[in-house]
Amino acid sequence: MSNTKFILGLFDDPDVMMHGIDKLQKNSIPIYDVYTPMPIHGIEDKLGVKPTRLGYAAFMFGCLGGTVIFSLVYYFLVHDWPMDIGGKPAFAAPDFIPATFEWTVLYTAFGMTGTFFFATHLFPGRAPRVMDLRATNDRFVIAIDAKGNTPHEDITNILKEAGAVEIKHNDRKYVSYE
Amino acid sequence: MASHNESIIREPLITGKDITYAKVTEDVLRPVENTPTKAWWIGFSVASLFAMLWVFAVSWTFWYGVGSWGLNKTVGWAWDITGFVWWVGIGHAGTLISAILLMFRQNWRNSINRSAEAMTIFAVICAATYIVAHMGRPWMAVYSLPLPNQYGSLWVNFNSPLIWDVFAISTYFSVSLVFWYTGLLPDLATIRDRATGIRRRIYSICSFGWTGSVKTWQRFETVSLILAGISTPLVLSVHSVVSMDFATSLEPGWHTTIFPPYFVAGAIFSGFAMVQTLLLVTRKVLGLENYITMFHIESMNKIILLTGSIVGVAYLTEFFIAYYSGGEYEQYTFLNRFTGPYWWAGCMMYGCNVLMTQMMWFKKVRTNIPIAWILSIVVNIGMWFERFVIIVISLHRDFIPSSWAMFYPTWVDMSVFIGSIGVFFTLFLLFIRFLPSIAMAEVKLLLKSSSEQAKKKLLDAGHLDASHAEFYKESLTKFDSVELSDYEKV
Question: Which chain A residues are within 8 Å of B214, Cβ to Cβ?
Fold first, then answer.
């Protein structure tokens, strides 16, 4: 029994890698994840990653921000300390627009980005779980969990046929902890 | 997908032969991964000397009060607010490039957005220092926030554009920062994975544990798109609100409904000029000619021409409305720009912003690097004078002739201004030293479709409309980074 935990197929071209994914899937080999130095469109459909719901989160945060500041300004200028400015109404709604707009944008930006960081476990100081150090540079890496039933040689061959420039049998999941 | 062939008639966004993904990383990270060059040290030393001058002049202001500036009873706002508006204006190009050009799918933004956004952040920092400095007592800045206090609570007045400004500038700064930093994460991870020792640890903390997995990238793109979507109205709102600081007053020369769009166009105008000033030098010094190409330079010059012309139309409109309004104070203010004691400032404003930029109609001017660089500086001098003219000339002679006065800057005024330029350049040079000045991941996206080598492959393969191929080859002649001899036989 080998100690291999993960088999990595390293590609130097995103299109070749996409064919590699197809090939692996045709052979019913489950793909653990794919690491790329840049966003590759269409890959999420192949791997069955659901569309993100961050847009809804952004909308909710925006509504919250706008509501919060509008209520605050209403409280300040109409309820708590109404000012007599030439007898004009204290509830001067057009004047509330700039602050409401700014906080809508502010809450959307911070809320959505915060949700993104939270949902993808990104935060300062998080140990990077990198499987191959070149995946952020010039290699497109398909990671396959070696615990599956397919013989490792078969996976290696499929990757080789698909045009992988290098195939790694890693004994540990992440290489970035040393 | 990355492999789609882009139409041949589009100019390449990355030039040079044998550019690989690895080479993009190498080229962009050269200044980050090596010890700084002599040029960097010289630039950094000069810039930080000026930054020190800023620290000194601002400390002087805080110690002795704003009385150390040349302000008087008539001209109560001068170089401080001129400098503030100037810097905020400069801070508009970055978000415009990263947000509006992203929405319009202008891929040429990919190689300039990172440094333009950094510039935005530094320019807004400089602007914010003016706001705090012009209060004279910086600890009073807290009263611009709607916080409960012992006076009632006496809240800030949300009917006032000055309070809108507090909200607009602080939101703009923080959202730009979030946008910029989120975009930096993948590139910081690239540095981290190539570094060793203490540098790896630092970049590891800064990169938030980015790995580039499918899910992160998918969400990253959504986040970028939505941030761009909300930043687009934000960037337009910021300078609109700044202009309302003036437009909602009753001062002739300020009390103008055209101000919001006029200020926004001027801001984009001066912002792009500053991007041009910095990038023309950066590309040369860091050897990034293949990524920031003549196409980028010309495109930016076209935007400078467009926004400069919008500003020109706004100037004409102002003059016409001053005449047509029949208001004698209004008419006097605009005549006074040419006939008063500050006629030279008026000439600088109209000459630099309108006359000089009209030269950009000529392709020879747009694609000539030394001229484009000088013009970009001329634009920013002109834009500084625009704010000076609007603020000081309007104030110095308004309704009551007995109150007319002149404004003479003191050495503190001048030192704060020159020093703020030093602060800006110090921050920019530090940025170039420690962070990737080009968004590597985004440039890599273009490599297979929009690069010169990809287009060369298309040409070599034939199957193209001969007139299209000819058009493409013709367009390459302006590039300074393309080996034209390669195309003779094709």
Answer: 33-34, 36, 43-44, 47, 49
Given a contact cutoff of 8 angstroms between Cβ atoms, the answer to whether B32 and B468 are in contact is no
The model's pTM:
0.92
Q: How many angstroms away from the CA of A38 is the closest CA of chain B? A: 5
- Cβ-nearest to A108 among B190, B217, B230: B230
In this complex, is the C-beta atom of A9 within 8 Å of any C-beta atom belonging to chain B?
Answer: no
Cis? peptide before B153, omega within 30° of 0: yes
Place of tokens 């540098």: B199
Q: Is B219 helix (H, G, I), strand (E, B) or coil?
A: helix
Query: Could B21 and A109 be called an inter-chain contact, meaning their C-beta atoms sit closer than 8 Å?
Result: no
Contact list in A for residue B161 (CB cut-off 8 A) is: 98
Element (DSSP H or E) covering residue A120: none
Which positions in chain B touch A137 (Cβ < 8 Å)? Answer: 21-22, 25, 190, 193-194
Q: Which residue from A33, A106, A137 is facing B174, i.e. has the nearest CB?
A: A106
Cα distance between residue B126 and residue B290, in whole Å: 31
Element (DSSP H or E) covering residue B202: helix B197-206
Could you tell me where the beta strands, DSSP code E, fall in B279-418?
none
Cβ-based contacts of A83 with chain B (< 8 Å): 157, 159
Instruction: Using a CB–CB cutoff of 8 Å, tell me whether B302 touches chain A.
Output: no
Per-residue pLDDT of chain B (490 residues; tens, 9 = 90+): 445 677 888 888 888 888 888 889 988 998 888 888 898 999 999 999 999 999 999 999 999 989 999 999 999 999 999 999 999 999 988 888 888 888 888 888 888 889 999 999 999 999 998 988 888 888 888 888 999 988 888 899 999 999 999 999 999 999 999 999 999 999 999 999 888 889 988 999 999 989 889 999 999 999 999 999 999 999 999 999 999 999 999 999 899 899 999 999 999 999 999 999 999 999 888 888 889 999 999 999 999 999 999 999 999 999 999 999 998 999 999 999 999 999 999 999 999 999 888 999 999 999 999 999 999 999 999 999 999 999 999 999 989 999 999 999 999 999 999 999 999 999 999 999 999 999 999 898 888 888 888 888 888 887 888 888 888 888 888 888 887 777 776 6
> Chain B closest CA to A46's CA: distance in Å?
11
The answer to whether A134 contacts chain B (CB < 8 Å) is yes
List CB contacts of B233: < 8 A, sequence separation 6 or more.
A101, A105
Residue B486 lies in a domain: no
Cβ <8 Å between A138 and B175: no
- For chain A, what are the domain ranges? 6-50+128-170, 54-119
The span from the CA of B11 to the CA of B296, in Å, is: 10
Q: Decide if B460 is inside a domain.
A: no
* Radius of gyration from C-alpha coordinates of chain B: 24
Yes or no, beta carbons of A129 and B21 under 8 Å apart: no
Range of the domain at B442: 21-450
As a CATH number, domain A6-50+128-170 is 3.30.70
ipTM for this model: 0.92
What CATH number does residue B62 fall under? 1.20.1630.10
The total number of structural domains in chain B stands at: 1
Residue B406 lies in a domain: yes
Any domain includes B6: no
